[in-house]
Write a structure and sequence with these properties.
The chain has 13 helices and 18 strands. The strands form three sheets. The chain has an eight-stranded parallel β-barrel with strand order 1-2-3-4-5-6-8-9, surrounded by six helices. Strands 12, 14, 15, 17 and 18 form a five-stranded antiparallel sheet that branches. A four-stranded antiparallel sheet has the order 10-11-16-13, with helices on one face.
C-alpha cells in the first residue's frame, strides 16, 4: 500500500525517488553537524584569528532571502544600523519601543552571532523633545535613556557605543556643539560612561568617532580624553574607529600606528563602520590593508562593515561594500578573506571572470516532504567549480543531497552546496543538484543566495 504521505504520482517515480533518498540518507546522516569549510567565510576566518567580523544590519531587509543568507553565512557579529538610536527607541519621553532592534538582536543571537550596540548618546537622530529640555531634566533623561536601553539588552550586547561623535572636525580638537555638550558641559561623556557601567557591568563600553583614523587634531583630542579616563578610573573599555574612506579621505599611512597608540592606553580598538568607496583592485587593496592593520594590533578585537550589498549602503553611489547589488562577492571581499587567512571561495581572484546563476524548483512534492532541484548555469566564461547557499526555514530539515557536497553553517539553517564531479561547465551550460527535505509543518520554499564560481 502507498503511504498517504507519498505524492499522487506514478508508483515507479515514487519508488525511484524514495530509493534515491534511502541510498544517500545513510552517508549523509551526520550532514547537519558537518561544518561548511569554516575558513571560507569572513566571520569564520576572523574567529580563527580571535576577532569578529560583523555588518551593520537593517531590520527592514531581514525578510529578503539573499540579504539574510549572506548575513547568516558570512558574518559573526551585527550592529543595528539605526534601530537602537534614540529616535528609534524613545521617540516619546519615557516610552520605549524596541521591536525593530529586538528583531535584529534575536536574529543574531539565534544564529550564534555577537551584537554591538549603537548608539546611546549622540547629537544626531534625537527626537525633538530632547533638545527642549533644561540642564537638570536633560541629565536625568540621558541617564534614564542609557539605563533603560542597556537594561533591556543586558547580557546580549558585547560592546556599546556609549557616546558617538562628540568632537568637532578640523584642527581645533574641540567638542562638538550638541544639547549634551551645550547644557551639561565636558563632563557629560564621563557621566554617560559611569551610568553605562552601572547598567551593564559586563558590556564593553566604547567611544566611537569618524576622521580619527590617523594621527590628527581630532584623534589627538580623543586620545587625550581616553588617557585621562584611564588615569582617573572612568570606565572605558574600547575606542571605535568608523573608517569611512574614499579618494578624498583615503586610508591614512599611519592607520595601524594610530590604532596601536590607543591600544597602548589599555583599551580595545574596534573598526566599527568600515566602508571604502571604489572598485576593483584599488578598493580590494585598501580593504586588505585595513584588515591587516587590525590583525597587527593585538587589542584590535573586530571589524564591522557598514552594510552588506552596495545598494543598501548610505554611500551606495560609491559602491563601498564587499558585495555588489546582486550579492556577488567583489574583489574587495576576496582581499579581506585572504587578509584574514581564509581560503578564497569559488569566484576568487584567480578567475575573476567566472560567474554562475542558480535557480530553484520543486521536483516532487508529497505534502510532508519534497525533492528540491537547483540548476547551476555558467555565465559568459567557462567555470571549473561552483558553490551556492540554500537557506531553509526551520523546522524544515534536509535529509539527503545528491550531485553536490554539502555542509552547514552553525545555525543549521544555511546549507552550502559545492560542485563535485559536475563543476566544469562551458559558457551558458547547466548542471543540477538535488535534495530531499522534510517540511515538519513549514511550507516556505528554500531560498538561494548568489552563486559563486571559479
Amino acid at each position: 500500500m502507498i503511504s498517504r504521505s507519498l505524492p499522487v504520482r506514478p508508483l515507479r517515480a515514487a519508488l525511484s525517488a524514495a530509493a534515491t533518498a534511502l541510498l544517500t540518507l545513510t552517508a549523509l546522516a551526520a550532514l547537519p553537524q558537518t561544518p561548511a569549510h569554516a575558513a571560507d567565510t569572513l566571520g569564520a576566518a576572523a574567529a580563527e584569528k580571535g576577532r569578529y567580523f560583523g555588518a551593520a544590519v537593517a531590520a527592514s531587509h531581514l525578510g529578503e532571502a539573499q540579504y539574510a543568507a549572506t548575513l547568516n553565512t558570512e558574518f559573526n557579529s551585527v550592529t543595528p544600523e539605526n534601530e537602537m538610536k534614540w529616535d528609534a527607541v524613545e521617540r516619546t519621553r519615557d516610552s520605549f519601543t524596541f521591536g525593530a532592534a529586538d528583531q535584529i538582536v534575536n536574529h543574531a543571537l539565534g544564529r550564534g552571532m555577537k551584537v554591538r550596540g549603537h548608539t546611546l548618546v549622540w547629537h544626531s537622530q534625537l527626537p525633538g523633545w530632547v533638545a527642549g529640555l533644561g540642564a537638570t531634566e536633560l541629565r536625568s533623561a540621558m541617564n534614564h535613556h542609557i539605563t533603560q536601553v542597556m537594561t533591556h539588552y543586558k547580557g546580549k550586547i558585547h560592546s556599546w557605543d556609549v557616546v558617538n561623535e562628540a568632537f568637532q572636525d578640523g584642527g581645533s580638537g574641540a567638542r562638538r556643539s550638541s544639547p549634551f555638550q551645550d547644557k551639561l558641559g565636558d563632563g557629560f561623556i564621563e557621566e554617560a560612561f559611569r551610568t553605562a557601567r552601572a547598567a551593564d557591568p559586563d558590556a564593553k563600553l566604547c567611544y566611537n568617532d569618524y576622521n580619527t583614523d590617523g594621527v590628527n587634531a581630532k584623534s589627538n583630542a580623543v586620545y587625550a580624553m581616553v588617557r585621562d579616563f584611564k588615569a582617573r578610573g572612568v570606565p572605558i573599555d574600547c575606542v571605535g574607529f568608523q573608517s569611512h574612506f574614499n579618494s578624498a579621505s583615503p586610508v591614512p599611512s599611519d592607520y595601524r600606528a594610530n590604532l596601536q597608540r590607543f591600544a597602548d592606553l589599555g583599551v580595545e580598538v574596534q573598526i566599527t563602520e568600515l566602508d571604502i568607496e571604489g572598485s576593483g583592485t584599488a578598493q580590494a587593496t585598501n580593504y586588505g590593508n585595513v584588515v591587516r592593520a587590525c590583525l597587527a594590533v593585538t587589542r584590535c578585537t573586530g571589524i564591522t562593515v557598514w552594510g552588506i550589498p552596495d545598494k543598501y549602503s548610505w554611500r551606495a553611489s560609491g559602491t563601498p561594500l564587499l558585495f555588489d547589488d546582486n550579492y556577488n562577492k567583489k574583489p574587495a571581499y576576496h582581499a579581506v578573506l585572504s587578509a584574514l587567512g581564509g581560503s578564497t571561495d569559488p569566484g576568487g581572484p584567480g578567475n575573476p571572470g567566472a560567474t554562475c546563476t542558480a535557480t530553484y524548483t520543486t521536483a516532487e512534492d508529497w505534502g510532508s516532504g519534497y525533492n528540491g532541484k537547483v540548476t547551476i548555469t555558467a555565465g559568459s566564461s567557462p567555470i571549473s567549480a561552483w558553490s551556492v547557499n540554500v537557506t531553509m526555514t526551520p523546522p524544515q530539515k534536509v535529509v539527503a543531497v545528491w550531485n553536490g557536497a554539502a555542509g552547514w553553517d552553525t545555525s543549521g539553517n544555511v546549507m552550502t552546496v559545492r560542485s563535485t564531479h559536475n563543476g566544469t561547465l562551458q559558457p551558458g551550460t547547466s548542471t543540477t543538484f538535488g535534495f530531499t527535505a522534510q517540511r515538519n509543518g513549514t511550507s516556505t520554499p528554500p531560498q538561494l543566495s548568489a552563486c559563486t564560481a571559479s
